[in-house]
Structures are given as structure tokens and as C-alpha cells.
Design brief:
Layout (H helix, E strand, L loop, with lengths): L2 H4 L3 H17 L9 H16 L16 H13 L3 H24 L7 H13 L1 H6 L6 H21 L2 H15 L6 H13 L5 H30 L7 E2 L4 H15 L10 H21 L6 H22 E2 L5 H4 L3 H7 L3 H8 L3 H35 L10 H4 L2 H8 L11 E3 L2 H8 L4 E2 L6 H8 L3 E7 L10 H7 L3 E6 L3 E7 H10 L1
Parallel strand pairs: 3-4, 3-5
Antiparallel strand pairs: 1-2, 5-7, 6-7
Organism: Mucilaginibacter pallidiroseus
Keywords: Membrane, Transmembrane, Transmembrane helix
Protein name: Glycosyltransferase RgtA/B/C/D-like domain-containing protein
Length: 514
């Protein structure tokens, strides 16, 4: 291989640099965005860096989330001595650049490949509003999406050689992914399905390879879940049953793709049909590739992952309650789906023998892509105007509204001794209490868990820090607490919230006086 062959992916470096700049722009006002999940990751990472444990800010092991991302952040914090919140923006720039470079590396190996196609797709990846949001916040998806592409590369190498060392490498990537996001079982499923469908692999070898692959893939996940069960009694923390039926989840799935395609909310009536077409299209493409005995291409691996991941999100949302299907949840399938629904154009062009016709078809495809890219660019521009030009910042606990909040600033300066030691602090946003004050706090009970509510009301003394702006219908309300407990108001913040204390002994004394 000559020198020129080795640097044929050099153009991707330019797109990687553009990606770095894009994340820099969106984190330039207030740094990396911090959500409640970010605070869970950050507190566990600080615990790991300082003590080698994975405890969140309320001194309990992290079980709602897998362990790899906080460990990853903790290792960087321990090595550099810099807090995750401080290095988060720089880390995300690097991860986004790696994602773009790896995308270019993969597309260069499409069959057939096209440099113009690669440029258009890389631009689409950089401009995708969902990915720009993901890489503007301190979220585990920033690592997981990269792991998906790494898996495609390594598993593709296995399919080209059927070498056990590449099988083990792919399974190892899948295993790490499973302790980055629990949804990474879809990566395991992608490899497992391809192994089952591969008709080039002798049956005896196939059985042994499936066993090796499966054992390695689930090893870290089983260990993580077993540890969770040991320390908390639950494998992934308390979970509630879903309240959204299958068709509703399918609709939400479609609305995300409507957004990605530049549609407006007025066009959401297309969401459900679009979702059905997308998923059926992936099934048809996988069946066609199976019929052609052509399962080992990057394009087919991307299609298989997009199908399994999409079905997993829709089905799991139907049985288990978590946040409504949105761009964050579906972000790992954006790049594979983009490839799945555009790479066919390369095959179609290859089959057109008449040069004039081929050029016309190619021109139409390029115009359609430029139209799409223009739409998403305008969405990104609007977000830039809202968040950066207007000095607001990435939405979260570091945005302008929180930084200007009297309640948040009070918590930043509050003397911890003002809260008596040993008395628990509860809140409807316990992450916010920790982020601004550094104090441990507990979430008020969910309405679904009746025993937790009963145990809460048995407490003889506690503080409540209540944020009015963060209404969460999943939690018991402040009014409900006041009906059961005579709360003493300690401090109020007009339009923002208040701090209360409950002390059963004091209440008894007041009752005696009366």
C-alpha cells in the first residue's frame, strides 16, 4: 500500500475539525450542558477518582446507570486532576471528532464508495440537531454512539476473516458497550443475528463462535447487574411499568425522524406511517441481503443495527417507563439509519450504464441531500440564536436561567451547618441541590411506589428543598406533603421555590402549648 492509499481518508480530518468547532460553538457560553443524568455520572466519577467507589452524591451505589461512563470520567479526572464538568466540553469535542473520522473511515470502505457521497453524509452527521445536542451535554451517549461504530468496524473485520481474535475483539467492544448503556444489548443482538444468518459459516464453527461471542458479550453486563442486585436489591434500580402503548411509541419514534428530516410539528401526522416505512424498509433490506448472501458489508451491518435498535426502543418503551422516545434515545441509530437509507443510491448509480442518465440521477440525489442539509442547518442556526447569540447557553443546570436564579445562588453560598447534621434533605430535584450546594439530598418518593411514600411519612425529621419550576408528575407534590406534615418554612424564593423543615418533636411541643 502506497503513501497516497494510506491518507485517502485525509479529507475526513477536515470534517472532524469542523465537528470540533461545532461543539465548541454550542458549549462556548456556559461549557458542557449539565442535566440530572449528568450529575449522577459526575458524582459517581468524583467518587471513583477520590475513593475508588462508584457512589452517587447521596452516598448510594450507582445502579440506574451502567458503570463504564462514570468510570471513564473518573479515570480522566484522576489522571488530569480536572473535574468532569470542567473538561466535559473538551472531551465531547474529541469524541465527536473521533465519531466523524470513524464515519469517514467506514464510508470509504462502502462498496461502491464515493467521495462526494462521503462529504454529504459527513455534513449530515455534523449538522444533525440530535447529535449536536448529545455532544453538547455530559451524557453517556457520547461514548456509546462511538462504540457502535467501533463495533461495526471490528465485527466487519471478523466477517471478512472469520478469525477468532476478531470475534473476541468485537465481543469485547459489545461487552464494554453493555456497561455504557443498557440499550447496548442491541449491539449484542446485531452480531448474534448476523452470525445466525451467515450461510458461509459452517454449522459447527457457527455454534462455537456464537457461544464465544455471547459469553464475552454479556460477561461485563452480568457482573454489573449482579453487583447492582447485591448492593441495592434491584438489577437496574426501581422501574415502573410503561404508560404509553405500542402505537403511541411508534408515533413518537416517527416524530423524531420527522425532526431529523426537517419536517415541522404540523407534519407530525406523517410520523406513524413514516416509522412503519422505516422499520419495514430495514427488514426488507436485511432480507434482500440475506438472499444475496451479502451480510458482511458495512451497509448491511448498519441496517441490522438500526433495525434492532429501533425495535428495541419502541418495544422497551411499551413495557417499561422511562423518558418519552426522543432524539436522545434514538441518536445511536441516526448514522446507521442515514447510511441504510442513502447507500442504495451508490448501488443504483453503479448499475446505470448510460453516463448521461447516471449523471442526472446523481445530480438529483445531490440536490435532495443539499435541500436536506439546508433544512437541518436552519434548525441548528435557530438553536444557536436561542442558546448562544442570546446568551442563554446549553439548557441545563449551567444555563443563564439557573445561573441567575436567586435560589441556585443561595444554595451555592449556603453554610452546610445551617442544615443539622444527620437530618436528611429531600427535594423534587435532588441533583440540583447537590450541583449547586455540594450537599447530599434524596428525591421525594414517586407516586407509583406506595411503600416508599409510607416510609417517607414515617420520618420524624427532614428538610425539603423544593423547586417550583421543576414540576414532575411522577413525584408526590408539595401540597400532598403539607397535608401529611406540618412543614416549617425556613426560606422562600419568589417564583422559584422554598426551603422547609419538619421536626416531629417541635410539632409536639407546639401542640402541647396549644
Amino acid at each position: 500500500m502506497g503513501f497516497l492509499d494510506k491518507i485517502k481518508n485525509y479529507d475526513t480530518l477536515l470534517f472532524s475539525a469542523i465537528g470540533i468547532y461545532a461543539i465548541y460553538i454550542f458549549t462556548s457560553y456556559n461549557g458542557v450542558g449539565i442535566s440530572p443524568d449528568s450529575i449522577m455520572y459526575t458524582s459517581a466519577a468524583r467518587s471513583f477518582a477520590a475513593h475508588g467507589t462508584l457512589h452517587t452524591f447521596n452516598h448510594v451505589p450507582i445502579v440506574d446507570f451502567p458503570v463504564f461512563y462514570p468510570v471513564f470520567l473518573g479515570i480522566i479526572a484522576f489522571t488530569t486532576g480536572v473535574d468532569p464538568v470542567a473538561f466535559g466540553a473538551t472531551l465531547n469535542m474529541i469524541l465527536f471528532a473521533l465519531l466523524i473520522w470513524l464515519s469517514g473511515y467506514i464510508m470509504y470502505r462502502f462498496n461502491p464508495s464515493s467521495r462526494i457521497y462521503k462529504w454529504l453524509m459527513l455534513t449530515g452527521i455534523i449538522l444533525n440537531p440530535g447529535l449536536l445536542q448529545i455532544y453538547s451535554l455530559l451524557w453517556s451517549e457520547t461514548v456509546f454512539i462511538l462504540e457502535v461504530l467501533i463495533f461495526l468496524v471490528v465485527f466487519r473485520q471478523y466477517l471478512a476473516t472469520y478469525s477468532v481474535k476478531w470475534l473476541v475483539a468485537a465481543a469485547t467492544v459489545a461487552a464494554i458497550s453493555c456497561v455504557t448503556r443498557y440499550a447496548a444489548v442491541t449491539i449484542v443482538g446485531t452480531g448474534g443475528l448476523i452470525l445466525l444468518l451467515d450461510r458461509h459459516l459452517p454449522i459447527k464453527k457457527k455454534i462455537s463462535h456464537i457461544f464465544i461471542y455471547g459469553f464475552i458479550c454479556i460477561s461485563l453486563l452480568v457482573a454489573n447487574l449482579a453487583m447492582n442486585a447485591y448492593v441495592s436489591g434491584t438489577v437496574t434500580g426501581p422501574r415502573e411499568p410503561s404508560i404509553t402503548p405500542f402505537m403511541e411509541n411508534l408515533h413518537y419514534f416517527g416524530t423524531v425522524f420527522c425532526d431529523w428530516m426537517g419536517f415541522t410539528p404540523e407534519q407530525y401526522f406523517l410520523a406513524t406511517p413514516l416509522a412503519i416505512i422505516i422499520l419495514l424498509g430495514f427488514i426488507a433490506a436485511l432480507a434482500y441481503n440475506y438472499y444475496r448472501r451479502h451480510l458482511n458489508s458495512y451497509e448491511n451491518l448498519a441496517i441490522t443495527f438500526a433495525l434492532i435498535y429501533g425495535l428495541f426502543i419502541v418495544l422497551s418503551s411499551t413495557f417499561s417507563r422511562y423518558e418519552r422516545i426522543n432524539a436522545r434515545l434514538l441518536s445511536p441509530m441516526y448514522i446507521p439509519a442515514l447510511w441504510g437509507y442513502t447507500s442504495w443510491a451508490l448501488l443504483a448509480l453503479k448499475k446505470i450504464r448510460v453516463k448521461t442518465t447516471r449523471n442526472i440521477v446523481a445530480g438529483i440525489f445531490i440536490l435532495l441531500m443539499l435541500g436536506y442539509l439546508t433544512k437541518v442547518f436552519m434548525i441548528d442556526k435557530a438553536r444557536y440564536n436561542d442558546q448562544i447569540a442570546d446568551d442563554y447557553g446549553v439548557p441545563g443546570y449551567t444555563d443563564a436561567e439557573w445561573q441567575e436564579s436567586a435560589m441556585a445562588n443561595y444554595l451555592k453560598q449556603v453554610d452546610h451547618n445551617a442544615f443539622k447534621k444527620g437530618v436528611p434533605v429531600y427535594s423534587d430535584a435532588h441533583e440540583a441541590v447537590y450541583f449547586f450546594s455540594g450537599m447530599s439530598a434524596y428525591l421525594v418518593p414517586h407516586v407509583f411506589f406506595k411503600q416508599e411514600i409510607a416510609n417517607f411519612y414515617k420520618k420524624k425529621r427532614f428538610y425539603i428543598i423544593w423547586f417550583d419550576r421543576l414540576y414532575n408528575k411522577e413525584l408526590i407534590t408539595l401540597d400532598e406533603i403539607k397535608k401529611n406534615k406540618n412543614l416549617k418554612l425556613l426560606k422562600t424564593f419568589e417564583g422559584e421555590g422554598a426551603i422547609y423543615e419538619y421536626d416531629e418533636v417541635d410539632m409536639v411541643k407546639v401542640s402541647d402549648i396549644k
